[in-house]
Amino acid sequence: MTGTTANVVRLPERVEVLNIGLPMFAEAVRAQGGQVLHVDWRPPADGDRELVRALEVLHADPAVDRANAEVVRRLDVGVPSLVTVAPAAEVVPRLPERTLLHCGPAIGWDRVCDPLRRSMRAATVAEGWAADVGEADRLLARGDVALQPANEHDTVVPMASAIGPSSPMLVVENPGDGGAPRRAFAPLNQGPGETAWFGRDTEAAVERLRLLRDVCGPAVAAILDRAGPLDVLALAAQGVAMGDDLHMRTQAATNLVTRTWLPHIAVLPDELRAPFARYLGGNHLFYLTLAMAAAKALTLWAAEVPGSTIVTSMARNGTTFGIRTSGTDTWYVTDAPPVGDALYYAGYGPDDAAPDIGDSAVLELVGLGGPAAGNSPSVAAFLGGSMADAAAATEGFRRICAGTSSRFQLPAMGFSGSPIGVDLRLVVETGITPKVTTGILHGHSGEGQVGAGVATAPQACFAEALRALAAGRRRDR
Amino acid sequence: MTGTTANVVRLPERVEVLNIGLPMFAEAVRAQGGQVLHVDWRPPADGDRELVRALEVLHADPAVDRANAEVVRRLDVGVPSLVTVAPAAEVVPRLPERTLLHCGPAIGWDRVCDPLRRSMRAATVAEGWAADVGEADRLLARGDVALQPANEHDTVVPMASAIGPSSPMLVVENPGDGGAPRRAFAPLNQGPGETAWFGRDTEAAVERLRLLRDVCGPAVAAILDRAGPLDVLALAAQGVAMGDDLHMRTQAATNLVTRTWLPHIAVLPDELRAPFARYLGGNHLFYLTLAMAAAKALTLWAAEVPGSTIVTSMARNGTTFGIRTSGTDTWYVTDAPPVGDALYYAGYGPDDAAPDIGDSAVLELVGLGGPAAGNSPSVAAFLGGSMADAAAATEGFRRICAGTSSRFQLPAMGFSGSPIGVDLRLVVETGITPKVTTGILHGHSGEGQVGAGVATAPQACFAEALRALAAGRRRDR
């Protein structure tokens, strides 16, 4: 084209904007019809100087990356097998007499939340230490029954669980790279309805604990004697492909193990067979504690690696929320968060809800629960309804995780692996904490489950753990 | 901008092309770096003038649209329940003595394909009409055992099935809008392995037929007596949400019914319980014939509507492929197609494969199989591997279907309903025929299943049916 042009200053007719940080600027350009690419960015650690320095220390150290890679490898390649079921007193290590193991960090009776108190009372009665829940309450209040965190005994328990020495425990073994296998434990799932793990202390809830002890535990032990060990996470991976997140939804994996065990259930002794079949056939949550025990067996092995920034314990007791990182015994504890993004049963709402509770958040550390939400239509219902909402939960974990599962593949996300290995550094840097899919218990009435939703882990304990790790590194040098 | 320009003819620097029809023009533009939007279009009915006139007749007639809407409604809202299991002789209507019911359109022994012949021999031995398969072959060859298409007896049978009067049949009832329920039938699934429906005539295959008759049929009948009727498609819909297409993959629905029936299995009499549990626990295909019987109960009700262009029968016998539309008794039959998009077991290939076989294509008429592929990671493996490939199969059905299921929702496709009601007019107009997800049998060795894949229904019978329908409409006026 030919032509001449005078020295005229021309304003651009077309504006393209790259906006970083606060979204309000992007919105203003968009409102005026301009093209804008918004980058969701915040200053690392919200600009907290001490945390930024801690991040610098931990990022600069190649030993941390090496340790993290090993932790991620262990979380990914461990093969935990369910080998038997036995009373806690016979298998759980370091278990003192007349002790209940409870969910979450250590806590004294005076601070125990209402649903967990009820569960403790029900367990105290089921153990025969008290004739009724009134007597149980008095025993517990005066310290005649000891309380210890299940996590300190290689054990994880869901929701408001408190378990006594007669509780039948799933025994899961992870051979690791050889040597003695890492053994982890979880109770048989109590099932839906009027049950102690939902914070109920009725006669039916106590009766369910006796059924587990007298029928369900011996039944699963007999099945495993015949069927042999169960590769817990192989079946879980099939369940994930069928839409389970294995935390809020465990239907597919429960049905897979039901089918797998069916020929062995059919030849159980008469006194076990029918009641166990009623229990299992009516319990779509059965696989939850299998997955939890397997996750604990992975994290136990991973936690042996020193000097990593990967979280290997995450647990709540309805009062406090705590984490540990690999290679340390120190818990970093803060207040338990509320459960948000919640759907409540009719007639209930946020005012009725107890705070986030249970050891099941161990699942979120190994690629299940929130990290697997992206393929779960059922979980999507709690996250906005669309599969894109569910995918966003998985993507959130990708931003704070150091690795990807080769075991749990998500068809709806291009068959990509779910994220594994929550890295303290990434959590503090991005301000994104793990989102945990979970049930909601009534906070004071003893009515049990009143809904389900998503709990966002509190930032404070991650920051505290990061500071402590960085201080430790500085001392080492 | 200012400037002057001489009268120069300028070639455009930027070309945007909209290409309709043959893709080669679009490719040529693209090869030269041009922008092109390609619209995949073909002349209706490939430009066949007689077919175009037939389409005009059937499109112009509002009675056809009304009939089609009613057919789609019936396919969508019918609620078929499994009510009992009983020997074919006791429940299947119009069943003459010494007769085998076989898959697909009517066929004489001389044209029966090898796998179906083997299945017929196995059934003849299992019925006690012959001492061994050699004698069975002679009886069949001289017409001493009659052959009738299962579809003519409100029955559908999968793959190379041939069933005798002692076969235990699933009895499914669809109450429709009231009056006598529509009853449809399908055999209990024989399971994977050395079985007659896969075209095997070994002693093990015969023994499996006896096990079904003596153990599995009575067991399911006893379970239903206690458990009550089973809403077959409610469970199927849950299975679809968990990645079943209910044709090639039936794992989730099978596990759901296993779990549902577990308490009743546990109290079966000793002589039934253990062998039935082994059969069911080892049979991920169990739900296939339940879904087929339910689909048949829907299409029987739909087929009562006169003057529709919706396909209500689609069946193959390994030699011929046939369809019927609602309101008529006439089959339109052509050669059975090969199974394409196939994955073969190691050591097998297309030369070993029998053509497409079985009545299971009834599933594709009610929103299962191909129409539900878009949410099935397992089926995706046969269609290219990605969920987008699977979605394309569902989209293909959308282009030839008159409606959408409100029952079968596909989470991976935005929770949209699967397409239902294959409309002859749309098939002929677009040239797209139903794609049927199916197993592949060995064509002559008697080795049974050698792979699985997708069969594309042949165009010819759809065109023939359309011509006949249009001719009928012209005569009516």
TrEMBL record, chains A, B:
Listed InterPro entries: AllG-like, OXTCase_su_AllG_h-dom
Protein name: DUF1116 domain-containing protein
Signal sequence bounds: none
One Pfam family from the record: AllG
